[in-house]
Structure formats: structure tokens, C-alpha cells
What we know:
alpha+beta; five-stranded mixed sheet; 157 residues
Amino acid sequence: MSSPKAPPVSLRPLTDDEFGPWSARASEAFAAGMGPARGLDPATALEVAHEEIGKLLPAGRETENQLIWIACHEGEPAGSLWISTQKAIPFIFMIEVLAEERGKGFGRSIMLAGEEECRHRGYDHLSLNVFGNNTPAIALYNSLGYTVTSQQMRKPL
Length: 157
């Protein structure tokens, strides 16, 4: 599914060969956002990210109730999407747009495709978390109709 401004993508399951590189990118992306939010240095943040993703995916891509897809445009990977269906409301753990594809509307396309997958599976809501300093992602989610359901705040002393 796509919108007029978003290039069409299709989602396909991640393969065994793709899991290792994808997992490394997922850990790096999570560490980049989570590290500053938790006050961690980059090396510690990456270590924590590897640990947390390992706990969430103990059986790798075969972990029950975890949907990990490669988003393809015209047969070529443009990014990925990880949605957990472990709880009543599916949760997006990661959306990735490959570096060379950023700024082309693929984030929107991938989100819309994930929403359609969830609708198809019988869900009527989808949730996610976004770090407060990720203004491009916040703008995308707002434009797609996501609303704030919880908010954490911090003040440096």
C-alpha cells in the first residue's frame, strides 16, 4: 500500500542470510537513539542494544509473534520493518530506510505497508515509541495520524 508521495513497497519476510546484518543495523540504530536518552556512552549503548534485541528475539527471525520484513521497491530492498504481535496491540520495534534510499518517501511507504499487514491480520491499532529528538520520525508519525499516548520528560540539572 502507498500514498501518492510514497513509492510503493512490498514486504517480504527476512531471510536467514539477512538476519545477521539486519540485527547489527537494528542494534546500531537502537543504540543511537537509546544511548543519549539513557545517558550512555556509544559503546555501552551498543552493548545494551545487542542485549535487549537478543532478549526480544531469542530464536532470531523465527521468534514467535515477531514479524520482521524487508521492504522492497521494484524488487530491491529499500528498508525493513519489525513489528511485535506479542501483545493485544502490535508494536513497531523498528522501521529502517536504507541510507541510500532516505528522503524519497520510503518511510511513509513502509509504515503504510505495515499498517496494512496488521489490518489484514485483524488488528485495529498499531503502536510505537519514538525518541524525542527524532524530529523527522515524529513528523512522519504525526502525518500518518499517530497520536501521543504516553510521554516521558527530562531536565538536565
